[in-house]
Amino acid sequence: MSSSSNSDPSSSPDNTDFIPLKDNPKDTSSYINKKNPFVNDSFDSHDDSYLDNVNPFEYNVADDEDTISMTSDGVEFHNLGITETVDEQDKILSELQLAYPTVSRYSETLDKGLLNGDKTTKGDYTSLRRFRKPFLFDKLSPYFTHFFSEIYAAVLRVVGPPRANETPGRNLPFSPILRQIYNHPLYNIFIFVVIVLHAVLLMIRSDDPHDKSQTIDYLIIVIGILYTLEMLLKIYLFGFLYDGSSSFYDFINSYTKKTPRTMSYLRHSWNRVDFVAIVALWISVIGKKQQGIFRLFSMIACLRLTRLLNITRKTETILKSLKESSTPLVQVVSFNAFFGVMIAILGVQFFKASLNRQCVWLGDYGDQYLPTGQFCGGHWENGIKRAYLDKNGFPSNVNPRGFICAEKSVCRVVENPYSNTVSFDNFFNSLELIFVIMSSNGFTDIMYDIMDAEYFVSCLLFIISAYFLTLWLMSLVIAVVTSSFIDLQHSGKNQKEQKSVDKHLIRNKLCEKYLFYSNFIWISFIVAQFVTLCTQTYDQTSSTANRYLIFYACVDFLLAAEVILRFFAYLPDYRLFFRRYTNLVDIVLAVLNLVTLLPSIRKNPVAFGWLSIFAIARIYRCILLIPYTRKIAKLLFSNFKQLLNLMLFLVIVLFIASLCAVRLFQDLPNDGDSDDDAISFATTYESFLYMYQILTSENWTDVMFAIQARLAHLHLSWIPGAFFTLWFLFSNNVVLSMFIAVIQVNFAPSESDLKMEQLKMYLARLLRNYNPFQASLTLNALIKRNGSRKGKTVDESHYEWLYEDNIIKGFLRVTNIPPKEPLKPSLDTSPELSKYSLAKLSNNFKRFVMRDDPFSQAYFKRVIGIRWEKDMNLKTAAKDMQAAKAFVRIKQTEFLKNHPKYNDVFWVIKPSNRIRRFCQRLVMPGVNERYGGVEPYQWVYRVIQVFIYACILTAVIIECIATPIYERDHLLNDKQHAWFVWTEVAFATIFTIEAAIKIIADGFCITPNAYLRSTWNCIDFFVLVTLWINLYAVLTSHALLSRAFRAFKALRVLRLINLTQTSQRMFHDALISGFFKIFSAAVVSATLLIPFALWAKNVFGGLLYSCNDDNVLSASQCVLEYASTPNNWEVWAPRVWSNPPDYDFDRFPHALLALFEIASIEGWVDIMRSVMDITGFNNQPQTNASSGNAMFFVLFNLVSMIYILTLFIAIIISNYAERTGSAFFTAEQRAWLELRRKIKSMRPSKRPAIRPLGLRGLCYDFAVQKHGIWRRTFTGLYIVHLLFLLTIFYPCPIAYTYVRNSIFLILSICYTINICVKVYGLSFYYFFHSFWNMFDVVVTLGSLTCNIAILAKFENRSLTLLQTTLLVLVTVHLIPKFDNFDQLSKTVVASLPSIFSLIATWIVLYITFAIAFNQIFGLTKLGLNGGPNKNFRSIRNALVLLFTMTFGEGWNDVMHDYTISYPNCVNGDDFYNSDCGNKPWAYGLFIAWNIISMYIFVNMFITVVFDNFSYIHTKSSSFTNLQRNDFRQFKDSWAPFDPMVTGYIPKRNAVKFVLSLRGVYDFRIYRDEHTLRSIISKVQSKTGQQSVPMLENPLMGSEINLEALDQIIDTIDVNVVKERRNVLNSLCTEIMTLPGNVISFSNILMLVVLHKIVDHREAFPISDYIRRAYVLSELEKSIRMEKLLGLVETSIIRKTFLQHMEEKKKALENPFILLSEVSEILPETPIQEVLRQHNADPEQLLMSTRTPSVSDRSFSIVESTVPTIASGEGDDNHSVEDHLKVPTDNEPRRSPSLKEVLLRGSHSLHSNNDRTSFDIEAGFGTAESDFQFGGATEDINRIADRIDDYLDRDSFKG
Fold first, then answer.
1. Which CATH architecture has domain 899-1038?
2. Which of 958, 1280, 1502, 1573 could be stapled to 475 by a disulfide with Cβ–Cβ 3.0 to 4.6 Å?
3. What value does the CA radius of gyration of the chain take, rounded to a whole number of Å?
4. Where is it predominantly found?
5. How far is CA 1053 from its chain centroid?
6. pLDDT tens, position by position, 1287-1335
7. Would you say the pTM of this structure is higher than 0.90?
């Protein structure tokens, strides 16, 4: 096949037909200059990372020659920087040895360079896209050429990824001509223009659907024809499903992903999208007026526009990350959907027919019928509670519950909300509401409606679902996307070359000083202007406005002059001035601010308000001046380009989604509700706003429910439900997670610094000796018998050993370390301060005013910090710590000598005072060790602490009971004898006595162990003071004083955090250690809120006023009264001209509060709709009169959502990761930690080791086979079971309910049979060892019993709910049936400890704030957002309301309800007679809870899940090849050694077990082909004896082929055998050093993995590595010593044996002794002694094992680095010092010297407990070594090395 071109392809050397491929299947790097920066040599299949290497608009003229290539005919080509990649489909062609000369897609010239390249990358073939340079470009600048290349590259990305052209197997008519058309650049440009035109036409049609709809429809049909022709052209050239390049069999196999893909049309994802869109387009054209279901196809046709997402390289990279995360994302979403389905089924059974009951007002005479919208469960009738009425008006047969309607109204069944589309009546509606819960927005209204219709406890299902589904499982979705995107960011970051930044200095020193010092002056002008803008109001007088204007003009001209002066300061290097971005920004701001002073702008308040942003933007200089904000801002904006690309991606996605929504929901019929009809998708702009609203999750359910209601009559309500749900899931959970990933990357350290950061953190832990919780013992400590903290001394030599160069080098994997490696671990969170910063000046002032206190923790930090600044390295870290402590102790002694009264309590009570010593015997010191005192009696102290804890718990319970309403009711009757008042007095007295004892024991504030030095004591003292003040106010009836201080009593609940150590640590990590970072994030957020608030005040100040009468047009008409119709009742009311009740922008504080609420993604839609209705000053708002104003809030909401919410999440994730150390873990270390967690959780198989026979053996197979027919059958039954559960609905016919219950009974019987089969096959013992089996028994028998009872007519509501719950629990068996679900479930379980500790801390805060809210607002009247259960009048209501505010659900509306004041409430003289709110307390408490719970703890929850999930999906480790089958194989090998499934085997069997392992765990020294039997069978002569002889004499009767034997021996690698023997020696020795006579399953698995698979140098964190290095060094010493002693013992035995033989010879030569008497006369030989000790013969000796006792000390990795499950999680439960401590011998023992051993022989080492047998097959020997190594270690090592060489040399001799 040939093609006509300028250069005949037949002239090529091979005279081979060329194929102009769109995807060249050969490497074309041969014709590209190697200096070309656009070439990437490591392209993967469909890898578009090369796009990151093409940096647009950074073009170097010098590189023009590298980007231009010439062909043989002189045609010039320009490099586009786009590689063409295809899969391995061309391997078939390469095997056929077909030549691949091709032409460029943009020229017919033969590219001979393709013949030279044959390099592939991972089996893929890549080339470089080029375009033919027109002749006109020679006249233009190369910059224009590069710019054109970037534009054309964008065109190619949108049109589609370049693919290969027709394959050699196709030869169709007209293909050359069509190929030329397809290869022409104008064709690509034309297709790009068509796609853009399609988007424009759709937007125009949506904005004007009536006038131009017919014309645009015709144009869209034309575009559809063009799309179809393009598709047919591709199909003709490439084939539809089969391209003909290979056999049809290979084509079928290509779908298995094991063989390369073909070039056919549908084998590429973008072509499949195009095909679906084109087919949907023609279906929508056929449909009549695009109504009904045809709307769906019209929407699908818009998917062709998704190609616009490839417009830039970065957006294409984002798509790539989404594609890479698609598989785990689908798995996680499926896992979440499974649990969502389970809860949806429960929702149907629990809450069916609950939302169709409302209170109906009947009127005074029963002649009215007005549904009130209040859900109910009964009504009052003549003072008696009655059940609700059914739809026919008859009473129901259920008990009244929930909200009881008032008199003259009834609770009656009506239609479900939103045209019967919102309910729990069937599975699909229930599943929709469950997803609403998972979205964490819009579910609280449904929850309170259910609580009104049912019982209060109904909220538990919503609370559990919200925490489990939303915070726990949905966090996995965020973790998948974030992990994938972070990995992509790191890969791109590693590929980028660091650009060198030239630091130019100003030559004139005077100018440099001027720039530095004058900066403060100019910033003061900026601050003054900013403050002035804040004080300016919209209603100021004209004279005031002129003064403000004059001031603004002066400041603007001064700052403009400052820019000019700054420019002259840079001279003569004026270019340096323009290289600084701040200078360029200041120039632009100066010019624009001068422009705003023009009269035409100044006199227009709207334009002046919008342009005031340029004056406000100068505040950035203040942000950069403060070190705190500058550091965070730099981290935040360090990846600013990536954030902009993400914003571009988000905008494009929003635009396409808006067009799709318009095509679906434009011109929908109204359902009659005016509120729902206001939601319209009539235009693209409206659709854009609604789609963005759903993205932010703010009231997104209102949009979905309203559209569903309008489509309900067409039975198409499922379309908006599915559409909006998918859009919410993609936009809110996927796209926004990418912003978190971008910001988080900025906070993460580089890969090269991770291990060094671990070292720094490790030293920081060593030096940190301050514990803020030391004042109180935890509950765990109180229940222990011995609670004294015994100091454990650590030998200094161990520290020296830890910091040896070889240890540090081994961890860092470097060969050279500087002699003094600077290491400055951070003991505090304060950043580095600049020389003239305010914080630095403040610290200096404090040091000048306050004297140094050597007893404070800050003093120790400062001392060690000075040492670090001078000279600090890894070796001297421990010595520096000890020196600093000694120095501080000396300073403390000197300080007390100089200030003898310092340790006297109140300068009176001396340390020797008896009362003080008595008090010291009762309590522990607040901080540090007690100086100059006595230690407390432990039991007395414990009793006191238990009593105090009991008092705290009792006080909390009383506070939950004695609410303000309860107190008011009792105080009105008897104020003097109210029991709760006197209990408060009693508790206050007890806590006062406790504080007094502590103060007398250790002092109040200035003594070494003062009371107020402890954080918790400060909180206790503050609570105690407020408690007495509140008691005084209550007893004296001081209302204002009582209300001001009564909330502080809730702080005592914080003492409950001390109940567990994990909650202590979690509280410390969340609120204390990360306080500074969170505060910094808050400051940075404020720098964003404040400028926007000021801008909003200038733009919208005074424009939100409106009249409550919609019929007036201006403020002048808003007078007198009008007929108001609340609840359809006409009432005359006065007209009022006012702002909205909860927000306005008239003052700066009001604007700041409004924007803070918007930043929490709450309430911004209402504010946006208000500003969209603005018509002008003093004019009545009109709907969408100023719709463009909405973009202000869209912009602010997007920026705040990205830079505030994601900033908080990223900082909290970073802080938690740094505290736990996971932030500095490498990929290998993360994988190891995950593997360690897996191993610790593994248990032996719960089944017999030997398969029974007969029928029981068959049952055994059914029980143990993972993929057998029996298991698959029951998996199918579980799926059928789940499908029948989905058929529960209301109203359901009784007959179908009976049939369904019968089916469930049959299934339960099948499950019971399955249990019986398992029990019979495994036996009771093994069956009940499994948790799943016990769970199966309980659930199956419970469901069977319930089914029988229900079918036997014993049905009631409680039994039905129990039956459904048990049936739903049966479906849990599907989780272990699928590997993905099983793995994700283990991820969830792995995070349980951290989650529970977080929840425990969270619950304490819940109770604290619930009591505070109840004490302050327990009597406040209900507002518009309140309800029967939505209030703070009881603790349970307060807890539920706090739960809703945790998810941001209407927290701002509730807050404004509790700011109510007089005259809208009753403000009585007494607290109990007032129902007003409290504005300071409302703002303080609500905002504090919003920040602590919503911003911190919710993100901590996500962080914990993310931290565990990242370990599961780590794929870059060297031991990820461990599969589930490998662990199963290990369990199978374990089973024969542990037949009773105890999880332990004796140590004497450990070596046999290790040698029995196969596969990846194989520890045999010689493999199967090199065993003795295998070698004998191969070397025996054919004429000799063919059977293998007995092992006692293997060569007897055989003829050996010595030549074959030599060949086999030559194949044995001596080094490999030596390495295997060393590994086996080390493993067995470490096993024997473990304490006890048995070893557990997890411990031996851990040791096997450590010795065989894991490289501790790469995989271990620093603490584990140090411990492991010590263990290995001790093992090496032990093994060397064993070899030495073995040699000595062998020598002695040989000498004894020779003496024995000599004596025997002499005895035989003696003629007076008979031969039979020789054995009786001669002494017993050492070998016979050994055999006698073991009661064995020589044959048994070969199989015997021994238990070497290398040392009485246990230094195994199992006991240190990897603790048992009971001990916790390594470093989390133990201090770092514990990892460094090596156990010492408790009992002294005799330690013979090496000289004694060598002179006296091995008899000096033997004892009665010595076991000297050894395993010949294992090839190692050990002996007891009870002496210290001392200084003879080097000699021993040299001797052992010689022994090794001798043994290795002799082992293979001959």
1. Up-down Bundle (1.20)
2. 1502
3. 41
4. membrane
5. 30
6. 999 988 889 999 999 999 999 999 999 999 988 888 888 888 778 888 8
7. no
